[in-house]
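User: Predict the complex with heme C.
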Amino acid sequence: MRVAVVLLALTLAAAACGNRDQGAARPDAPARFGFGRAATAEEIWAWNIDVMPDGAGLPPGSGTAAQGVAIYARKCAACHGRTGAEGPFDRLVGREPRSGFPFGRDPRFVKTLGNYWPYATTLYDYVNRAMPLDAPGSLTPDEVYGLVAFLLWRNEIVTDTAVMNAQTLPRVVMPAHDRFVIDNRRGGPEVR
Ligand code: HEC
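Assistant: Here is the predicted structure with heme C placed in the model:
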């Protein structure tokens, strides 16, 4: 009984603290403080750049490997190597091992777009959002599509004439596509 009373007291104290922290109990607080202004649709659109695995969010535009190769040489090769495999930074091209998926056990294998990425559309999202490292967000949609086409071709995933755009890119099946499952664990410490 005594334990229960102490617990109840602690619970009430915690609830009181919570209320004070959030300021929820202040009847004089205005609904809005009047700072700033609502973002316009264009401003929200400028930040709304995520591209989903099914291609939702891909912008109009298109590109081929032939168009991407020149942009790659100018804006990417210094960090990722002449052909995408030399570094000094992340290796972008490589299909080894051609069978199996031993990355967890064998650290000799370098993860690349060609052997590890499950969705081609993620490549658009990532390059558009984060590359080149020294000027992220500076590429046009056509440039990004061209770079994506070039990198997919270099990884032997599409042909050298493939046109990448909002319709074709989601249909590209990456070699590692079936190596990932949706994590449907719920709540507790379940491990598949
Ligand atoms: C100044 C150096 C630099 C330049 C220039 C650069 N990158 Fe990167 N890139 C990096 C670094 C460093 C990383 C790793 C970033 C991280 O892990 O957070 C990276 C990561 C990437 C990745 C993800 C690799 C992976 O498997 O996780 C891709 C794809 C990529 N870059 C593409 C490009 C493309 C395309 C260009 C040209 C438009 C480019 N990068 C230009 C330095 C650079």
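Residues 75-76, 78-80, 89-90, 92, 111-112, 123, 126-127, 131-134, 147 surround heme C (CB under 6 Å).
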